[in-house]
Amino acid sequence: MLSDLAAGREALLQGRPSAAAPAFAAAVERDPADHEARYWLASALMLLGDPDGADQALNEARTLHALAASQQMGADLSRLKTDADYANTVAVQLYGQGCVAMASVVWGLAIAAGRQEPQMWANYALSLQHQGRVEEASSLYRATAKDFASPAIHQFLVYAELFCEDGERRHAAEARTWADLHARVPPPPPHPNAPLSARRLRVGYVAPSFAGSQLRQFITPLLENHDPAVVDVVLYPNDASTEAGWPSWIRIHPIGQLSDADAAALIRRDGIDVLNDCWGHTAGSRLGVFARKPAPVQAAWINFFQTTGLPQMDYVLHAASDAAPDFEGLFTEKLWPLGPVFTPFRPAAGRLPPAATPALATGRVTFGSFNHPAKLSPAAMSAWAEVLRSRPDAQLLLKYRYFADPVLQRAIQAQFAARGVAPERLVFAGHSSGEDYFKAFQAVDLMLDCWPAPGSTTTLEALSNGAPVLAMVGENPGVGGFYARTILQAAGLADLATTSPDAFVARALELTQDVARLDRLRARVRPGFDASAICDEVGFTRGLEQAYARMFECWRSPASPRPAAIPQALA
Fold this sequence. Notes:
By secondary structure, the chain is an alpha/beta fold. 48% of the residues lie in helices and 9% in strands.
């Protein structure tokens, strides 16, 4: 005779939640400490349309599971519940190990035990965001930013909104609010920058770090190919020691120890003509410097392709398109089209030789997503689950450093179980490097992108390693969908950009129905990427330098025409 848990599981995966839920409830009643039964109960209640009951069961499962796992890792449960400082220390350690779901439970205990400070609240919200609990994180950021009036914590909210429902409009509104609250400064004195007739254009880039951050694969093609006869380049990182290896003619002026006002004064003294923010509303941002308008032309791009919300920012740089969507209301800046791609990208060194699609050898299709868990929206998971239900022998590989967390793994499995996908069909992998990292791409037949917040570096890495990426860009794509579409178009893979969830599911099933055909698709992914404008480092950089010069001339002569490819709503 089947146990309650086994009987409930069988009923749930057959689509009979009304029969499954009582079995799981009985298992919980028999053993209240059994987190596994509560995960299954949460799945059943999700399918029954009881979101409040499902949330309660899932939170109870996470808590029990996290405490049991923490104890196995050496934590003292009694102290966790009574000693706020100890709980905070353990949570910080768990977070550092990538165990974000476990950390959030322990931070909750620290708060319950009486510890109250803005940074801990922000860390707690960040641990929720990293699990994909984005609405909870957004609410907590909002409350914390209000209580402590912190521009840095408020920026966490601005960024988190992107992952929520209707995220781009929520982000745009919150970015404007942030600018109104934290970037109101007196207008600067007139800029004395002279014409370019007898000098080089002076270009500045601002970010906490260039060589030691996610910017490296995007910024290296520019810094190594900028023409020193045309442009004079200055980097403004936090610390000069992080920036070894750039061409010797590029100057490095660290601003990490300077206030926003002092950093702006330094940039003004340097006579920068075009100043680029390469970081956006992410941790470590120096948008307060840009609020002081230290350069006559200010642009934002690379790490952030949404609005900054700052009226002092002139442009956001983007890919050009004859069919650019209507972004009205999403930018305070004007869009400046650079060409077919948003940025160049240099594939990581050490790529393995191209390989055949793995299903030819394994006999089963492996779908994959290497995206941040915050991007796994309910809509995307529902579409992925429909694909998996239609391919009962297939599996889904989810790889990111936070997927080393057993509590996050089980919570994701519970959400897929509510959509008819057995837990064992999901495979999890954490961080890897070197050859192991490159081998991971050779284990996936088809990457499934997320929406409404699509992959960026993850998509570029996948394509550069020969793994096809299927995206849902939308019929009227937002900024993220537009970005994803331009990447695929540039790589000659426009057929992998779908315009609706239904089309995404149909295309995934079509591509994986014939493994030999899927292998032929794979054979053109890496060559198409390597030959694309994404990898044309010199061509992109020359075009960028020309764009900078035109921006500067538009400042000197406001009547000068701007590129016609800017959508009319933004011109």
